[in-house]
């Protein structure tokens, strides 16, 4: 089985894989969510905990996902089943693949709605609608977007279409080509924005907010948020990284590659924070505004600053690109599976799945207006989908992947596939994947669920 190639193609080289996986990892999670949860949880202490979670939980699980994908060279659903068979275990372990692909699919449906807001803001910034608006007006503008299903539907549709087009192109002509253009653009935009915030923002204040360690701010809740986020930001538990891993070169080192992806993803989150907070502070705004940080606080800040119109536009462009490359990796696993299972052409598979996601997204966007009264466990549809994926499906899927890679697969298989240089490195991986990661994830799972439902 080792010399197999995926029927979908493979990455041209190791760096393309690193960039594609980084494209998946760097998304709304890094630029929208990381800064606001850091803001809500008091800055530096939170950042430190988050880094520990990436290292002890995120990185080992990502290695596990990639090794399974590359070993089987199939979509996650088939890859988990096939490696289970190879290890002489029950093929029903393949259900883990299902769980991940399904979670990714559901996430896409509401991720696309938020990405649609971003597209709306790109257009708004580009046409100068935010010049000199105060906090009140910015808040109202955002509310009126949420109240308008037509507006949201347009942008949601555009976004789904953008993603379907890339996935329909396949691994080489679609994903790889998009990666080559979008990732350099993303890094460049980020650097430009960092330069702007360095020159025009209260950089020192932003810096110390992110990096000064204040142990008082460290609460148990913050630890849970950090752990959950380390998962989401690395695109784990959704088949995305496993699918990308199935197109990875046989000789490339999984350990070194994953470390690079983890470092890049973290750097982008930190640099995004360094681009955002100095601007927030320079305009005497509140860093702890929560989810509205990006859609209300930042437009106000940009609206008041010299050159803010251009840089605000570039900022939302950056977020749009990041969301795009992430969503591609959410659609890819299901598409690969439909191609494998039903022999459909990739174009048809991507279009069909995109259409279903588009429909599901409509339910999400209506939950902000016409369907606001429909409640599932007292949550609106959007919040409910976010809740079951982020708090139930992802941790569960991550936990199962850790158990699967650590305990179910044979050590011979994992040792062979990881091909780490030293046995110390392999033992470190074994300890984290068998004990630390599953225990940590099980704890967030139970505590979160208890906290939310109790
Ligand atoms: N990692 C992405 C982010 O930080 C989200 C994502 C999760 C993308 C899973 C793909 C798969 O926004």
Protein architecture, described:
The chain has 454 residues and is mainly alpha-helical. It contains 18 helices and no strands. The chain is globular. It starts with 13 loop residues before the first helix and ends with a helix. Bound molecules: phenylalanine.
Averaged pLDDT, please?
92
List cofactors, ions and other ligands. phenylalanine
Largest sheet descriptor: none
- Structural class label: mainly alpha
The proportion of strand residues reads: under 5%
Number of helices: 18
Euclidean distance between termini CA atoms: 48 Å
What would you call the shape? globular
Low-confidence stretches: none
Helix content: over 70%
Order of helices and strands: HHHHHHHHHHHHHHHHHH
Total strands: the figure is 0
Rounded to an integer in angstroms, the radius of gyration calculated over CA atoms is 21 Å
What can be said about this structure in brief?
With 454 residues, the protein is an all-alpha fold.
Q: What is the strand and helix layout of this fold?
A:
Elements: H1 14-25, H2 28-40, H3 44-72, H4 76-86, H5 95-126, H6 135-146, H7 149-168, H8 170-200, H9 203-211, H10 220-233, H11 240-245, H12 254-282, H13 292-304, H14 308-342, H15 346-366, H16 381-408, H17 411-418, H18 423-453
Helix pairs in contact: 1-8, 1-12, 1-14, 2-10, 2-12, 3-4, 3-9, 3-10, 3-12, 3-16, 3-18, 4-5, 5-7, 5-14, 5-15, 5-16, 6-13, 7-8, 7-14, 7-15, 8-12, 8-14, 9-12, 12-13, 13-14, 14-15, 15-16, 16-18
This protein binds phenylalanine.
């Amino acid at each position: 089985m080792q010399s197999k190639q995926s029927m979908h193609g493979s990455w041209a080289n190791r760096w393309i894989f690193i960039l594609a996986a980084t494209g998946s990892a760097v998304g709304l999670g890094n630029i929208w969510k990381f800064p606001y949860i850091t803001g809500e949880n008091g800055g530096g202490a939170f950042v430190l905990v988050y880094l520990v979670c990436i290292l002890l939980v995120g990185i080992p699980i990502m290695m596990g996902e990639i090794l399974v994908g590359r070993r089987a060279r199939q979509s996650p659903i088939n890859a988990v089943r096939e490696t289970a068979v190879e290890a002489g275990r029950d093929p029903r372990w393949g259900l883990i693949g299902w769980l991940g692909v399904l979670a990714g699919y559901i996430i896409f449906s509401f991720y696309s709605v938020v990405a649609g807001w971003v597209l709306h803001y790109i257009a708004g910034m580009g046409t100068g609608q935010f010049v000199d608006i105060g906090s009140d007006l910015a808040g109202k503008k955002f509310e009126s977007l949420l109240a308008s299903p037509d507006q949201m539907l347009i942008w949601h549709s555009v976004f789904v279409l953008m993603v379907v087009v890339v996935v329909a192109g396949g691994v080489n002509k679609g994903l790889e080509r998009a990666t080559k253009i979008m990732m350099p653009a993303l890094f460049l935009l980020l650097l430009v924005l960092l330069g702007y915030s360095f020159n025009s923002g209260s950089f020192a204040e932003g810096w110390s907010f992110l990096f000064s360690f204040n142990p008082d701010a460290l609460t148990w809740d913050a630890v849970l948020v950090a752990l959950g986020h380390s998962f989401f930001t690395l695109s784990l538990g959704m088949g995305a990284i496993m699918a990308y891993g199935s197109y990875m070169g046989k000789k490339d080192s999984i350990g070194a590659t994953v470390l690079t992806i983890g470092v890049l993803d973290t750097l982008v989150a930190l640099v995004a924070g360094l681009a955002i907070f100095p601007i927030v502070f320079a305009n005497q705004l509140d860093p702890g505004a929560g989810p509205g940080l990006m859609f209300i606080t930042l437009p106000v800040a940009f609206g008041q600053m010299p050159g803010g119109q251009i840089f605000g536009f570039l900022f939302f462009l950056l977020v749009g690109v990041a969301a795009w490359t992430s969503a591609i990796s959410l659609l890819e696993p299901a598409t690969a599976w439909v191609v494998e299972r039903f022999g459909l052409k990739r174009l048809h598979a991507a279009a069909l799945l995109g259409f279903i996601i588009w429909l599901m997204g409509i339910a999400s966007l209506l939950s902000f207006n016409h369907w606001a009264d429909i409640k599932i466990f007292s949550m609106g549809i959007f919040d409910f989908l976010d809740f079951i994926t982020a708090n139930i499906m992802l941790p569960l899927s991550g936990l199962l992947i850790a158990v699967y890679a650590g305990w179910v697969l044979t050590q011979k298989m994992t040792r062979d596939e990881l091909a780490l240089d030293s046995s110390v490195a392999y033992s470190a991986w074994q300890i984290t994947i068998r004990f630390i990661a599953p225990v940590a994830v099980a704890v967030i799972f139970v505590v979160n669920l208890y906290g939310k439902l109790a």
